[in-house]
Amino acid sequence: MFKCTNKTRVLLSLPLVFGVDYSIGFVINYLGFMKILLINIHQLLQIRESDVCYVAGKQMDDLPLLQNAWLLINKDTIEDFGPMQTVPLKATKNIIDCSDRVVMPTYCDSHSHIVYAGDRVDEFVQRLEGKSYQEIAAMGGGILNSAQKLKKTTENQLYQQAAQRLENCAYLGTGALEIKSGYGLNLESELKMLRVAKRLGTKFPVAIKSTFLGAHALPEKYKDRKDEYVRHICKDMIPEVATQNLADYIDVFCEEGYFDLADTEQILSAGAKHGLKGKIHVNQFNIIGGVALGVAMEALSVDHLELLDEEDLSALEGGQTMPVALPGCSLFLDIPFTPARTIIDRGLPLALATDFNPGSAPSGNMNLVISLACMRMKMTPAEAINAATINGAYAMGLATTHGSITRGKKASLIITDPIKDYSHLPYDFGQNHIDQVILNGRIL
What we know:
The chain is α/β, with parallel strands linked by helices. 33% of the residues lie in helices and 22% in strands.
């Protein structure tokens, strides 16, 4: 429910209307119904022209801002903004005083798996006792463990669990989220996951993109028949996903012991024939050439990249594929962090995402991701915020609507607590500086 805290002063001319229940306790209010004016903004962050789709190289350390600013929301859109000397106070009587606060676009989390059943806390304990992620997977844990739990969970139960996670992410500042399937590993369960993701997109004012990840692991049924499972994905699963219009993208876990280059090319090609643009999980544990393949096949993004070599970097320099780092996974599994400095210093772009999933990154907190990027990947606060907003939007196909303060883009905004500078967001890594979130012009 909307709160007028003693920190944020709100002047209202129209009554608040409650009762739009998107989830458990998730209520938005239509403040003023039409226009909202934010005034006295200490720092209005990430101001861009509409033709800037992403930033790369040295540009990533440039985070355009306006001091002492105003911003006008019209319905679900950013209508205008400027310095306080030009504030249009007569535009509306619905005013939020943002003195001493940073206002910035909501985070665009381009890689998550939030539709899953239960948890894998037992595996967390096993890893603390010395077992590796790969060893646990070989014992029937990992993705196969999640697949078994999901099969026994009803679609409505699955939705309720995912809705709670999405609600938490929204309050932590996420305004756009990509959701992958991949814990079904059979047609019925994969479709169930994608239906839940689509339902989330209709019930929440968060921009949702869905990705079909049938090639996440080999189901037990196909343990020694990988070629047959790949054919099943291409001939049966992909056409049905496309027919039901349940996914925007297709993904493959391109990794030793999972799906090789030939498998990945076959699956992405089949997806492309049905209008599903490619994304790839790649270079998490081994380098097998997946980055170059992704670029050659014009994948929208290549994700993980904990390991990189010269061939990978050269391939990325020749395409429009967005590299995506997932530092929450590196932290949780205690594996290398994506070499962000190497990527950025080569003049390349980089996006940041959570990888929110039960086994290797059970957190959807983009604030933590930004802090980790600064502390463990040696990114500057400006680079990390660019990676989590405008570049994240590009990595999920939302560059024209999200990720920056741009006239005509969606009014999905973060209003922080009083802070001196946006650098406090990664600096105070144990503190939540988000006071309020506006999604599509609606205050949570």
